[in-house]
Each structure stands twice: as structure tokens, then as C-alpha cells.
Amino acid sequence: MDVNEIKVIDKTVKGWLKESRDNVLRKIDTRLTVNTKSGRTDLVTNIDKQNEKFLVSKIREFDPASRILGEEGSGDDVTTTIGRVWIIDPIDGTMNFVKQRNHFAIMLALYVDGEGVLGYILDVTGNHLLSGGPQIGVFDNGQPLTKVADTPLREGLMGLSGPMVLHNDYNMVDIANQSLGMRVYGSAGIDIISVLRGELVGYISYLKPWDFGAGKILCETAGMMVTTIDGKPLGMLSSTTVLLATRRAHRDILTIVGQ
């Protein structure tokens, strides 16, 4: 894809996200309709659904030939990576949104034939946007992202899934112990922003495409590793345990996982 076309898309998407954020904040203190999906900790609200429909409508108007994979089902039944595919997470960290009205994100990604082109993670209440892709670089609130140091596990904080640590999946307790400390934010988007800004050396959780689609693009562009927990390539349509980290921390974690 031509870089000038990418820049036009980038400017357009940032406009959508500003409007999307405004829509969410206008309704954040209203009475929510909250339902469960797979279980009592897997929530969806009327705001999730409304925000996804808003973003789907913008994409349909701007890029009608593309397909859309949305968490709440407003898009298409995407079973192949061929062509242009948009991935939407309208509210990432819905439990945080419901219980705290904070620490949640909106995420959007564009893939073409399975390759990441543009990714966006917006911390809604913090008004903090990480954006970009391999042809234009990564930006932190519009400024080029400061290069993140290649810090090993033992010298950094690690973002981890609380349930996975409690069950010691993949030797997660050892990973936590060998880091300087674990953090559990409850939102993949907020964790990934922290990794990109050098506040965490990595993040591990079971994720679906809308959870990691944008982060995969941004982190790989920034020179980090994004794989399955056992170091295998991560497919765009995968639902699996994802390991996202600096290169040195990634090597350290794979050693622990393999023990």
C-alpha cells in the first residue's frame, strides 16, 4: 500500500477515534445495560455495542470493499486474511469500564492480506493514543515514539493475567518472581500502551484478535516480539495465549515457559 494512502487512512481513523471517545465519555456516567457473555467476568454493555456500530459505520462508508472483525458481532464473519480486514475492540477492559469508569481502551487495526498496516490503541479517560504501523512508524500522542530499551525480564515490571498467575499456567509464578514485579491492569490495551512506553518489559494473557490486533502491529513496528506463549508465530485470526515483550525479556520468558 502506498505511504500517501496510509497517511490519508491514518488521519481519517484518528478523526473517528476522537469522535468515538467523545461519544463514550458523554455516556460514561449514564445508567449502563450490562450483560454477560461467556461468564460473569466477561461483560458487554450497551456502550460497547453502540461504539462498535459507530466504528463499523465509519469503515463501511470509507472502505466499503473491506471486511470487519468486531468483538461484539457488528461486522462480518471473517474466516480468511485475504484482502483488507479491519479489527475493532470498541471497549477493551469492559469490567474496568463498568466498575471503575477508568483504565479501558478503544482499539482498531487494519490488516491487508494478513500483514499489519495500521494499529491504534486509545486510553479513553487518559486521552492517550498510540498509533502507527511499519510504513510510518509508531506515534505517542502524535509524537514519534521514544525508542524503548531492550530490557531483560529481571530488570523490569511484567504485565500478567491474574487468573493465569493464580493457576500458574506456563510457569507464570516464576515469570512474576523473576521480574521486578507483576502488574494486572485488566485491559490488554492499557497493558500494551505500558509496554510501548517502556513501563513494562512485557505482557502475557489469553487474547483474541481484537485484543491484540492493534498491539501486534505497534509492538512489532517498535522492534518488540509478539508470539504465542511458546514462541510460535501469531496468526491474525488466532485466539491463544500471547507473549508480547522486549526481545531480551521474550527470550528470558521462553526459557522459563520451557522448564
Automatic annotation (TrEMBL):
Mg(2+) binds at residues 71, 89, 91-92, 211. InterPro entries: Inositol_monoP_metal-BS, Inositol_monophosphatase-like. The keyword Flavoprotein does not apply. GO terms for molecular function: inositol monophosphate 1-phosphatase activity; metal ion binding. Keywords: Hydrolase, Magnesium, Metal-binding. Its cofactor is Mg(2+). The keyword Metal-binding applies. PANTHER family: INOSITOL MONOPHOSPHATASE (PTHR20854), INOSITOL-1-MONOPHOSPHATASE-RELATED (PTHR20854:SF4). This is Inositol monophosphatase family protein.
